[in-house]
Design goal:
Layout: H1 13-16, H2 19-54, H3 90-105, E1 108-109, H4 118-133, H5 138-159, H6 165-171, H7 184-199, H8 205-224, H9 226-229, E2 235-236
Helix pairs in contact: 2-5, 4-5, 5-7
Length: 249
């Protein structure tokens, strides 16, 4: 697959990828969701006030709520049947669940900077394919450049949980790319969003099929190196979001 043939002329990944359109779409949805949440909170408070007046001593409330294993998807996004199906291996799905648990429910954060970072992981995959195939095809090089571009653009727009924002602001200064600071934990979140991102890209079906195969191979590489690439524990959000690397990294 020659990624430069997508539009009949040479174009870098981020020129044809459509990520800017997705980001605009996401921003609009975020505003809608905030307005909806504000209305729901108002309705909920009114309902709770009414319920407190009629609640009996013997009544019991439901505890807990269903947890999602990945980055929340926009309700107004494209229909599932229109999305490319990127299969995340079960072990990495469990990694996403643990990631969500650490950040959203235990209030912990990934200690930054990560080692290996996203740039280093992409380079390791490059070296792996070079050793396996004896050469690096142009398409693999384009895909690795594309993943790096996607990650750097998508991280602040759609890959962070709310309580990771402050850490991001502290960690990413001018001329510092997220891919040089963040690691496998946040890179894996990108694959949750990739089907939606690719929906907004003008990619022919044949090219998309081959792209999917190569992305699946990259996910298998992440799975194979899971213990080396991913953290098993996160640090307390009360600590500094940017820290010197410790033994847990």
């Amino acid at each position: 697959m020659d990624m430069n043939l997508l539009h009949g002329s040479k174009k870098s990944w981020d020129e044809w990828a459509g990520i800017d359109r997705l980001m605009k779409h996401t921003e609009e949805n975020v505003q809608k969701q905030q307005e909806l949440k504000k209305k729901q909170d108002t309705d909920k408070n009114e309902k709770a006030a009414r319920g407190s007046q009629t609640k009996t001593k013997g009544s019991t409330g439901r505890r807990g709520r269903k947890r999602k294993s990945d980055i929340p998807k926009d309700k107004d996004g494209p229909p599932p049947e229109k999305l490319v199906n990127i299969q995340i291996p079960p072990q990495l799905k469990k990694q996403l669940i643990d990631d969500c648990e650490f950040v959203n429910h235990l209030g912990k954060l990934v200690r930054l900077p990560r080692s290996p970072n996203v740039d280093e992981i992409l380079q390791k995959y490059h070296d792996y394919r070079l050793k396996k195939d004896g050469l690096i095809s142009e398409s693999v090089g384009e895909i690795l450049n594309g993943l790096q571009c996607y990650f750097n653009k998508a991280l602040p727009a759609m890959l962070l949980y709310k309580n990771e924002r402050e850490q991001f602001e502290e960690s990413i200064k001018e001329d510092v790319s997220p891919s040089s600071v963040y690691g496998a934990e946040h890179l894996l979140r990108l694959f949750v969003k990739l089907p939606e991102i690719l929906f907004y890209a003008s990619i022919e079906d044949e090219t998309l099929t081959e792209l999917k195969q190569k992305l699946q191979d990259f996910l298998r590489f992440l799975q194979k190196n899971q213990s080396a690439f991913f953290l098993s524990t996160y640090h307390s959000a009360d600590d500094s979001g940017v820290a010197v690397m410790t033994e847990e990294n």
